[in-house]
Amino acid sequence: MPVGDIDILEEPLPLPTRSAPWPLLNRLPALLAEANGSPTAYRDYLRQAHEELKARFLAEDPIEDLVHARAALIDVVLREAWRSQHLAEVDSSWALVAVGGYGRGELHPCSDIDIMLLVPEPPDAEGRGKLERLVTFFWDIGLEVGHSVRTVEECVQESTADVSVMTTLLEARQLAGSSALVVRMRDALSPDHVWPVKEFFEAKVREQAERHTKAHDTAYNLEPNVKTGPGGLRDIQTIAWVAKRHFGSDTLDGLATRGFLSVAELRRLKQAQAFLWKVRFGLHILTGRREDRLLFDHQIRLAQTFGYEDASYTLAVEQFMQRYYRTVMDVSLLNELLLQLFREAILTESEPPRPLNARFQVRNGSLEAVSSDVFARTPSAILELFVLLQQNPDINGVRASTMRAVARSLWLIDEEFRQNPRNHRLFLEIVRSPVGVTHELRRMNTYGVLGRYIPAFGRIVGRMQYDLFHAYTVDAHTLFVVSNLRRFAIPRYDHELPAASRIMQSLPRTEIVYLAALFHDIAKGRGGDHSELGGVDAEAFCLEQGLSPYDARLVAWLVRNHLELSITAQKQDIADPQVINAFARKVGDESHLDYLYVLTCADVRGTNPKLWNSWKASLFHDFYDRVKRALRRGLESPIDQEQLVRETQEAARRLLIEHGISDAEVEKAWARFGAPYFLRHTPEEVAWHTGLLAERDIGSDEPLVALDPRGVRGTTSVLIFARPSRHGFARTTAVLDQLGLNIVDARITPTGDGFSLDLYHVLEDDGAPISDNDRKSEIEHAIWRSLQRPQDTPFAVSRRAPRQARMFNTPTQIQLNVDDRNRRSVLELTAGDRPGLLSDIGKVLMEQHLQLHDAKIMTVGERAEDVFYITDFEQRPLSGAAAQTLREKLMQALDRRRAA
Question: 109: pLDDT confidence band, cut at 50, 70 and 90?
Fold first, then answer.
């Protein structure tokens, strides 16, 4: 029977009645009584019961029945254990209490089983011995029970200090022992004595906000946590805890009874809870452990278990995860709605409303429609709501009644609504606003408005892409891109990406790039080229909204070309003037380049938190500068190689003079190198190399190894100057890989006097340059030791690929083309990324007697998409036969390692 805030049930939870009979569970009390405390018998019955639950789950019994049946099963076991261990006879003043989720009567196969042994006073030695025997018995029968032993006074003390303890005890449910003691605890923990309702509410809201922050404030993570992630089960429980503390409501149904939830909202919340329960139950069954993370391998297997099948353009796992993401989005909205209702009921002292206009007013700091039929009378007010929130930053949010009114009015956003010029002006006002663009677009998405106003956007809500490159769903990624652009536009974030911020703040019409961001991935999942399809959608939408034809074409051009700058910078030789000139012709003018640059930075930065690093920032900006310079010269006067070499040498010479390096030393060092060296390295790198070579003894054959911890390219530069060895690239990349370093670029320059200057750009696994002196010494010594070993010494990388990467089986793809102008071959290779990949490629190149000049290394989630510039030892491109042999040898070597 419920008593105030705490349930005191002296009878077991009833077994579910909606599904078929439960043979073992119904007979379990009698069977356990006959077992007379035998751990073996208990363990065997628990195993059989677990198998029965598993079979019923696979037979698609209602998940609510299974969750409650698991708790009822444990109730029976613990009560019989209490009796068989003679605690009921020895001391009737104690109580055995279920707490937490178990107290709610909700258990998944491997959920925590939390109990409290409530005692009138701290137990003596004899009492402690009894309790230890009881807990030991629980472990002996295979139950991992989390337990505490507390007096009522200790419950009060610990609850006062920690709201999580208060929350756990809020759901206490008596299993056996003294009812009077539990009643006394309930009285002591009432809101009159501990955690008044207002303070409890505020604490739970803070707790939820902190939990969401840890998940980057998005429910759309690659491998979400079903229990604690935003929109997960804990968000539903937060609603229930506040309702229980304030209203004494024991179930979600009580919220509907009290008018806090409509029947339709209650149904949505229960459906969401059932789906999340089903996913969590399946995870526990699948893994055999307390696993609440939807990891990649679990996603595939659950999709199969739940009957999803691959379709033309979407995998089964993508369909399953879209259902998951849309469910947690619905939970997030209902959570926001109910917490706002609680806030209004619990915290707010009513103030007279302050009118904003004929349709809206501010009540107690929140925006409110003046009547429930505002949106029916004036549908445009749906968009006006978000404009007002931007114009009035002192408003804290939206009243719950208004949120509900928006939800009821979504059907009004139809084709007529989308064609209304007033709505066009309101939408453009949102994206042109100096404040609140990201915040209100996210709110529009959460409320379902954005997907109704832009139907194509509605189709990508919750759409995942099953790979390691895209960390978020398409809609979440899109809004992260907009958020990144907004940060570029706000001066207080200038320190993050100074160049992008400077350019963004100089753009004449920032709404152009915001609209391009909204549409850049909008055609994902349709089949075909999403950039081209999205460009068509973008241009039509922009013209419809009243943008000029020029601006609409610019938005469409940005959508069609949003990948071009990133791909060109990472996969082509941007030291080649022809590459720069070709890209300058593609963009046409500086305005297009500026818009494309900020969109590219925002896009890559918003794809995956681990993807953006100082190397990419430097690479993109270097490429942008080179193209901008070409545009300023004019497309009819392209940059030539001789001029670039001359400018690099002049800038490097100025730096060397500052460091006291004479012209004679400079000329002697530079005599080793041809024009390609000066094209591929910055003046700062040339000056660093020259200084090191000037200090070197004439005629020395000793290898030179040096690190520049924070090079101009945002990486740590690793220099090796030595006689070319048979497996130089393969050996060096193996050493760097084994040390856990991420190699992002390699440049191999043979010199005229029989040496090779090899420069590797590396980052730590977290994307940062080397910052520790001990780490720097470790790298230098490892490379030095490798160079001292005989050339035929075996070497390999023993690090394993990360768990996520091992889930994918990327087929190896190889393309070989001849670059006649630069007299070299270009090897483009796509394969599954793994430790040792570069070393294996290097081994094959040397076995085929090929010279590597440059490596452009690009990791796209689980895939490596690398480009290698190679020749034979006569500095010629590969013949057709040599290219075919190389392709076959690479396929054999890489597929052999993949199979291993």
Answer: very high
Measured CA to CA, the distance from residue 281 to residue 472 in angstroms comes to 24
- In the chain, the amino acid numbered 301 is R
Tokens matching residue 691: 């200084």
Q: Are strands 145-150 and 113-118 parallel, antiparallel or unpaired?
A: parallel
| Distance (Å) of CA 650 to CA 70, 623, 645, 654 | 77, 20, 9, 6
Q: Dihedral of CA 471/476/477/482: which sign?
A: negative
Determine the Cα–Cα distance for residues 830 and 813; give it in Å rounded to an integer.
5
pLDDT tops 90 at residue 107: yes
Exposed e or buried b per residue across 243-262, where buried means at least 16 C-beta atoms within 10 angstroms of its C-beta: bbbbbebbebebbbeeebbe
Q: Between 46 and 276, whose confidence is greater?
A: 276
pTM, two decimal places: 0.84
How does the average pLDDT of the chain come out, rounded? 88
Nearest-angstrom CA–CA distance, 300 and 316: 8
Cite the beta strand spans of 124-270 per DSSP E: 145-150, 173-177
The 8-class DSSP code of residue 262 comes to -
Q: Which range, 31-35, 384-388, 457-461, 825-829, has the best average confidence (pLDDT)?
A: 384-388
Strand partners for 149: 117
H-type helices in 635-772, by residue range?
641-658, 663-670, 675-680, 683-694, 728-738
Structure tokens at 135: 């807990």
Range with lowest mean pLDDT among 72-86, 491-505, 616-630: 72-86
- Give the whole-angstrom CA distance, residue 687 versus residue 745: 19
More confident of the two residues 101 and 349: 101
Phi, psi of 2 (to 5 degrees): -75, 135
- Spatial distance between the Cα atoms of 649 and 639, rounded to a whole number of angstroms: 16
Q: How many helices (H) and strands (E) does the chain have?
A: 41, 19
Q: Where are the alpha helices (DSSP H) in 546-613?
A: 549-560, 564-571, 577-587, 590-605
- Amino acid at residue number 520: H
CA 358/CA 429 separation, integer angstroms:
19
Residue 217 burial (C-beta neighbours within 10 Å; 0-12, 13-18, 19+): exposed
pLDDT of 11 > 50? The answer is no
Give the pLDDT of residue 458.
94
Indicate the residue type of 836. Answer: G
Radius of gyration over every alpha carbon of the chain, rounded to an integer in angstroms: 33
Nearest-angstrom CA–CA distance, 891 and 10: 69
CB neighbours of 624 closer than 8 A, spacing ≥ 6? 499, 565, 593, 597
Sign of CA dihedral 436, 442, 443, 448: positive
Q: Which amino acid is at 82?
A: W
Angle between helices 296-305 and 316-346 (to 10 degrees): 100
Q: How far is the CA of 835 from the CAs of 737, 802, 897, in angstroms?
A: 6, 9, 11
CB 236 within 8 A of CB 273: yes
Distance CA 680, CA 685 (A): 10
* Residue 41: exposure state from Cβ atoms within 10 A (0-12, 13-18, ≥19): middle
- Structure tokens given for 124: 């003596």
pLDDT per residue as tens digits for the range 294-332:
988 899 999 999 999 988 888 898 899 999 999 999 999
3-class SS of residue 67: helix
User: At 645, phi and psi to the nearest 5?
Assistant: -60, -45
pLDDT at 805 over 70: no
Q: What percent of the chain has pLDDT over 70?
A: 93
Query: What's the rounded Cα separation, in Å, for the pair 307 and 322?
Result: 14
DSSP 401-417: HHHHHHHHTGGG-SHHH
Pick from 742, 802, 775, 470: nearest CA to 613: 742
